Amino acid sequence: MNRSHASGDVTSPGAAVAGSRLARRRRWTVVAACSSAVLSAGGVYATQWVQSPAEAAARTQAPQASVITAPVVRQVLRNTLVFRGSFSDGRTVTATPTGVAATQPASQPSASQPSALVVTDVFARPGQRVKAAQPLVEYDARPVFALPGAFPMYRDLTVGDEGKDVVQVQRALHSLGRPTGSDPSGTFGSGTAAAVRHMYAAMGYAPPLTTSAGTVSQDPGPEATTTLPSSEVVFVPSLPARVVSVPVHVGDAVKGPVVTLARGDMTLTGFLDPSERGLVTAGAKADILAEATGAHATGTVASVGALVTPGAGKDDSASDDSAADARQDSAYVPVRIGGGGSWDKTFAGQDVRITITAAATSRAVTAVPEAAITAGADARSTVTVVPASGGAQRVVPVTTGVSADGLVQVTPTRGHTLRAGDRVVVGT
What we know:
This protein is of the alpha+beta class.
């Protein structure tokens, strides 16, 4: 019996073999393509790390040289000097009471018992400016005050005394508007005594009196005459004076100075390097800054002194500021700076920075930085100009002048030009 098969139900062996071969070919084609892609990518990557000898040499060469330039300027050249200075009190005077006016005619003065003196009031404070016959400190209910004069009060003065210290007292009384009557100059007479009494009355104190026995009293009894005790008066060359210190409080025993006054205003001394001596002259403007407090002021150079060498036997009498001078351990030139008046009290005792700017040229000049100047083998000075357009550099011979603050005055030689705004080489 014959059997028939539908063509779609049975696959022949030849067809199956052919399909298998075709699939294998396709797989090999895909693998080959992927391998080729990987190899290509690796080759590209590898070429980035492989250099020819020429390329390696080019990479190791120094970069092309460039130049540093600065502009040519036209201005007045100025020298700016900065140096240290110190404020001080100059010469000072102190008041140290050693005796007190007795309250009874028969009482003995207490000059031999200084420990008995007690501070009973304090009127002055540091930095304050005080005038003549103004109570500063009170001890045992007696005032300490200042009068104008340079001669020290070395003794008690009373009727009948004579001398230049009496002349000084009379002049001080006249400055207060207290006439001394018909007393001759230098003689403490009744007119001078009356002026002293009026001065004490204006201060609110009874005038001290001395008896025929030599005791001091405040009782205007028989044979008592007016006196001016040395313990109560301190003479200062000029008034008003500045209070430097008041080292006592109410209730303290008097064991030393009760007040210290400056004989004049604060002084500012600058310590200038000797090599810069010729750059500073009297009248130059100065800028003063106290870095510690931020205080700022302007002043004028009052004087430029002679060279000072510490330890070389400098005459301290030439300076009112030997304490400040002693702070320097190297040679210097003292420069005194005036403030055009009284310095602010915040400068007291301060070390400060002093800046002085002085014109080095009387008019505007063409100038370049010092680094732009080149000296050739022929000793001629030149500058190299870099054109703004980027063209070739040109060398300009110049004649140099004064220098200040890193700039040098230059004048181009005949046939050459150099203008403000041109760029000159200062380095590479």
